[in-house]
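Cross-posting from the modeling subforum.

Setting up a comparison between two proteins and wanted a second pair of eyes on the formatting. Protein 1 (sequence, then structure tokens):
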Amino acid sequence: MLNQDQLFEKAKSSSLYRKILNSVLYKMVPFNKPHRFQIDKIDDDSITVKLPYIKRNFNHIKGVHACALATVSEFSSGALLLRKLGRKYRIILQKLEMEYHYQGKSDCYATFSVDDNWLKENVFSPLESEEKIVVPCIVKTFDSDENLISTATIKWQIKSWDKVKTKA
């Protein structure tokens, strides 16, 4: 059985393993299953998640619903942070801010990127002296025609599991 790191690693280059990873994520986060989010692309420092243009993701004028855009933004940043941070840290959503630029009328793609330098500067170094930190993560979502649909700022609280008082 593959562990989380192995599954993410294989999903970088294999559509079969991306499909398996998406199935696992549907089970881990059942709230997202009806939206049919799919990890479209993943590499060492970024992830792109597809928000399909399907009826359950529509608003009242058959555009992509604002809440679906917010949820795919949270999902993409959370998935990459979990992959990069591993099991040592707990992440929990503190705040989510959305700015909507254009009405989505096709599949949308939310992309989040962080590199090791960003993690060192914004997560690991601050956690050496703080019990918990809050990091802002910027997620941009584009439609199939490359129109900028939304920009999300997701603030994640990060804390070492050994400092958490209420266990999962």
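Protein 2 (same layout):
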Amino acid sequence: MQNLPGPLKEVVEQLSSLPGIGPKSALRIALTLLKMPRERAGGVGQAIIDLRERLCLCEDCACLAESSPCAICGDATRDTGQLCLVPEWDALLAMEEMGVYRGKYLVLGGLLSPLDGVDPGQLEIDRLRRRLATGDFEEMILALGATLDAEATASYVKNLVESEFPDVSVTRLAQGIPIGAEVKFMDKETLKQSLVHRQKM
């Protein structure tokens, strides 16, 4: 990659810094963009800029949205007694695709990971406290996955809720999700069974 012209090398380096894209894939993408008509390539670039400028975090659930509150938080038909805690926005999408859960969400913004330096202050713990302090929720469902980081996060959140909001029951997705897996990678049926057969912690 060292012999690439400067502008092409810059695009390849930028693309290959993204998760799941290696240098060869980045080069293929860059060459595809280079072959596109100028207007279409400009459209791709503008869409990336718009992604940053037109999306915001919902003030209630911290999910990505075009406005705040988001469509889910603003939906009066959803069950206001249930709050589903997910690590990232893509896990929320996986839950919604299932079409079974009709409660509210909160996107935690990651998982506790001492080895990676992720502590409670870097997650949406304060937002979680504010949501639970409204007194609207009777149940909080932990949909965090079954990794070691997810287990540590679940334990932390469970202890927090039990000590500060004892009237809120804490449940978790049933252990149909294999150890080491993440919610966003589960097939719909496994995710559905895990939600339907969730267990009290």
